[in-house]
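Retro notes
What went well: the complex prediction finally ran end to end.
Inputs used:
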Amino acid sequence: MIIFLPLVAGLVLAALPRLSDRTARWTWVAVTAVDLALIVGLWLRYDTPPPGALAFEEQAAWIPGVNSSYHLGVDGLSLPLVAMTAVIFLACAVYALRNRHRPRVQAALFLFLQSVSLGLFVAADLILFFVFFDLSIVGMYFVIAGWGHGDPGRSAMKFFLYTFLGSLALLVGFIGLYVAAEPHTFDMPTLAAATPLADRPLAGGLVLAAILLGLAVKTPTVPFHTWLPPAHTDAPAVGSAVLAGVLLKMGTYGLVRIAMPMLPQAWRAWAWVIIVVGVVSVLYGALVALAQTDLKRMIAYTSVNHMGYVVLAVGVGGLVAGDTAQARTVAVTGAVTQMVSHGLITAALFLLTGVLRDRAASYDMRSYGGLATTAPSFAALFAVGAFAGLGLPAFTGFIAEFQIFTGSVAAAPATAVAILGILITAALFLRALQRVFTGDTRGHSVGFTDLHPAEAWSVGSLLLLSLLFGVLPRPLLDVIEPAAAAVVDLVGR
Amino acid sequence: MQTEMMRPLLLLPEMLLVVGALTALLGGSFVPRHQQWIIQILSAVVLVAVIVTAAIGMAGPTRTAFDDSFTVDTATGVARILAAVGTLLVLVLATDEIAGTARESETCALLLFGTAGTVLLAGAHDLLVLAVGFLLATIPLYGLIGLVFTASGAEAVVKTYLLGALFGILLLLGVTILSGLTGSTGYTDLTSALADAPPAAVTGAAVALVAGLMFKAGGVPGHFWVPDAAQAAHATAATFLTTVPKIGALVAVYRLVGVLPDAVPWPVLVAAVAVASMTLGNLAAYWQSDPRRLLGWSTVSQVGFVLVPVVVAGRSDLALPSLLVYLVGYTVTNIAAFAVTAAVPERRDLADYRGMAYQRPWLAAALVVVLLGLVGTPPTGVFVGKLTTATAAWDGGYGWLAVVVFVNTLVSLFYYLRWIVPTYRPPEPGPPAAGQTHARGRWASCTAVTAAALSLAAGLAGGVVWTVVSGP
């Protein structure tokens, strides 16, 4: 019901060509708001299910011949991401109230994307997961190609081909799991309980490699990240926000939902590889971001950096040795928190860069200066976003990164090199702030219109949530921690 | 006792098709030109009757007719229904092109004959029936392609005819060798007799038979005529010949390999044909700028995908159902794709599709659904087919084939996207050519949208389809 409400609304919008633009925009806002309210209601009724089980389960036969069913449910890993998805889509809907370019179709497309994203996070069947995974790529392709700027066709194509390669690799891995399981099934909880391929290290390694390739392209981690910067640079602001905030999480969510519980032996065997990929992503993402002059590109690369932390932490989750279970649980909790936190903060930052594009059609940091004088509230919100992004205490980013490093360093001291990544990110955010907002008012900053209410409200609420859960992380962590402990338990089998 | 063995009523759908075709042919001579639509209606009624009788036939147990030479089982039932539904869609699509022309009733008759040949192929349980089905399905195609009087049309029909003759002889050669070796042509006798036959001779015959059927299916090595025919023929003929005959040919291949003894390395043979078809079709499609020709090559690659479950026939329980599921998805999706080209016959270059999303949003949406469907994007019917065939391949010990399927799927995305991209570009500035967008292709547009919706439904209701094709 929660998943398909946006889809139905989207179809209705798509099928009514005569609807006025204004109605379409407000319908979009209303639908996302209702959906968010439903999810908040769900959260309030949520009780932590026992390990390995899901809450609010729904199951119906779909393709019984291959034991694939329409199976949904939430647990501590997915619920925060579901809520985050709804929040980001609501923010995008509010932000897009000022959009003049085919708003009806855009609303329909985003509602479709919302359904797909929510569906992915609650899917408890591999094929269902794959269906949503693939549809998210299709939806995003049309967002970039239809509403992008610069060279959108090319960027969208690159994005599509790259991530489609990933999704096919993922499907190969899924089929491998299916064939190895006895009896054959695509059901996630059953597979996690059965751990097929447990005693076949080679086959297990290959299947894990296929799944990791698929998820790594989507996350993205070094060296599969090259589709990300052009896609972000040319995507519209709301598209970037959804891409970075929601779609990237599908990769890391897949790691904790599928790869870790279903292939624990292979995961343990390859944990070091995953950790190295995570650390390299952290450092490489940060260094390349430092070298950018294009603000949006810079934020895109910080996404590589931030998702690197997540990969690092889940990799640490596989380092089973002695008494580190506590530390590993902390790391995995941090990883899930980081997914939520990065979604909120990066979506806000991308929406803000959309304002730059809207007013002056340029992301070049060198062509701005002293913007704080002409656009004080824009400057204030951007500063808050930047500080949240570099992991300042009192924001969710700090909680997440603190946990990730506490857990990782305790389990594997060598991972401390990744802390350098935080330093570099801090430097680059501060430098960006200084370049764009301080000094003499010059270049595009002259005559820059400050934020409109729609923009301020959408970005502000995202940052406010980040601040809220940064100061009072308990409600969030209470949901995540049991699920993270369960995952670590499953990997330790 | 004799009637017990013959059971002519089991072949009611086939009889309906042939009688319907004859009636259309003869009746067409006696109906005035402006009333030939009556023949078209009659053909549609015949096809609906075929669907109904075939559905009733499916409810019964597996039986054979005419001295064990024709099987009526789930696969035959599905092939009958599918071929009839496909031809029905083609018939609707044809309305724009043939209404009021000199060849209206002939087209209907040829379509019905071709369909009859396809279902004969699908049910053939005897090499002679196979040969008859092959000829009955092939000869109407020459006529259909030849209905267009252009230079490229003539080239296409000559090419098809020569290749058809060559592969027809190959098929007959295979039949001769097998019957010479065993003294029998029925599959039941062949299965037991071939075990003692010299493997080399049987392998040679198998190669000839599979090659002959590949001509019908439009796969490597009998594929050369497909792109030419798809490009040059009428949209009606192009749609029909790239869709309906494949159903019969592929089911026939499946039945045929079941006869071959283990000493014959037929899985490797079929796997090689499958890989060659999908790879060659994809690579060749990439360079095309004519959408019909692109689709022609894409059907070659699709045949490769459908052959994958045949490789593991007998090794995986999923083989036959996944083959049929793929055929269901493929039939409706491919018809929809050709129907889109039929709806806008003036756009003969990929670049001409620029701006179609703005001028004809429904048609553009249908095009996107079916092209992504042909790639294998969920939740369309072909996705379920691709998923289950790959699973069947892996399940039957051919994991590498599943990987090849997905690598080829990725390659195919390139050229389908080359078509989607211009469709969603804003139209060229300047006044649109008046009158060309809306007046023509109304029936074809309806077919395109309906078939695209069907392909979505086939995926969403994948469970239902699977249950039906898995049989009782």
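What we learned: The mean pLDDT of chain A is 86.
What to try next: split runs per interface for comparison.
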